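Slack export, channel: ligand-projects

TW: morning all. Re-posting the request from yesterday since it got buried. We need the structure predicted with the small molecule present, not the apo form. The ligand is flavin-adenine dinucleotide; the SMILES is in the block with the sequence. No rush, but it would help planning for next week.
GE: picking it up
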Amino acid sequence: MDLRYTDAELAFAEEVRAFFATDYPQDILAKRARGQALGKADLQRNERALSERGWLAANWPPEYGGTGWNVTEKYLFDEELERAGAPPIVPMGVIYVAPVLYTFGSEEQKQRFLPEILSATTFWAQGYSEPGAGSDLAGLECRADADGDDYILNGVKTWTSQAQYADWIFCLVRTSREERKQQGITFLMIDMTSPGVCVDPIITIDGGHHLNTVTFDNVRVPQSNRVGEEGKGWSYAKYLLTHERTSYAHIAGKKEQMRRLADVARETGSGEGPLWADADFRRRYDRVSVELTTLEFTTLRTLAAVATGGAPGNESSILKVRSTEVAQAITELWLEASGYQGLRAVRDRSRADWNGGAAGAFAPSWPVTAVADYFFTRAQSIYGGTNEIQKNVIAKQVLGLE
Ligand SMILES: Cc1cc2nc3c(=O)[nH]c(=O)nc-3n(C[C@H](O)[C@H](O)[C@H](O)COP(=O)(O)OP(=O)(O)OC[C@H]3O[C@@H](n4cnc5c(N)ncnc54)[C@H](O)[C@@H]3O)c2cc1C
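GE: finished. pasting the full token output, ligand included:
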């Protein structure tokens, strides 16, 4: 296995780096650097900028507008995007539903939906989970009853990321009850402006509005919005999940977080000196750095296997678990640094002016982002299939244990 990049690959990385430095909307990078949340308009501007450069749909076949990149080019692109601090592509349209559409959709559906996804003019949500169906997804109860050329949809989807922005949602719904609960599930696309669709926010512990509950009350959905065969939705859903679980590592983003953390720790500390000089903190920092390096090599090994004709298959569960654990460990270090920063701010304040005045000037904004990131990154071991479920997959499918 040769893990060195070729000259052509290095030149490609340079081209991507130059794009983010000059042709990409710099105000989006500035907002991200300040830890500001991005709204729908920014997320769409991000994707349009990539789309105009022909770089939005890295995983699509070229005939539908994909980039035609090999796995190494995709990896290099992601690295440069994260190094620049650009937001990740919102996956529900480009990465999740589009592959299902170009693989199992009708010609009409491909022509209707793929160009809108490619030009970032429609925003999608994923409606799989329900209050009683998460890990046990096949236990879903949201029901679609045939009525002429339509279905009538009733039920509740929950934890639906960014449904508040969505123009369309793809859902798994029950169209019949069969012996096996995986049967009788259908893959349906629903226009969010349809009468009877209601979106309610769920505010998470980081204070953000990422999630929602989506209720369908007698919503009329044309049968032409069904992907593939009725009752076969489970196999399309499983296909989609393999795309979902291969996109978690975000190595360059994690490296950048570690680099910035080292800078912050050099400037932050208690009365006894900078946090960077604290042996216990440094030991834990170094341990996470080593774990990140091993994650990087595991990712590269998977890429090398794919490049030579292999498939990531169930090994993507290993990447999901490790990526999550390293991501959480990094946010724990940041949280600790923000605690020291808070301590310092309190001490400085006590020396200056407890009644306000210039006191606030000592407090930079990064601890707020660090605390919010710490809280929200807890969710990584839940979404995309919980880590416990991934460990079951690894035990059964990778290690052959039963
Ligand atoms: C931030 C975030 C974003 C999300 N976005 C979306 C989205 O856009 N669309 C969508 O459809 N869903 C979304 N989800 C939902 C997510 O997919 C589910 O939360 C997840 O599948 C777990 O389901 P659950 O919450 O019902 O937990 P449960 O399945 O009830 O699990 C509860 C606990 O039991 C454990 N457990 C369950 N079964 C087993 C088992 N067999 N063996 C061992 N342990 C087990 C789990 O690991 C977990 O710790 C999102 C979730 C989060 C947190």
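GE: first-pass observations. The mean pLDDT is 90. The chain has three domains: 7-89, 124-231, 248-398.
TW: perfect, thank you
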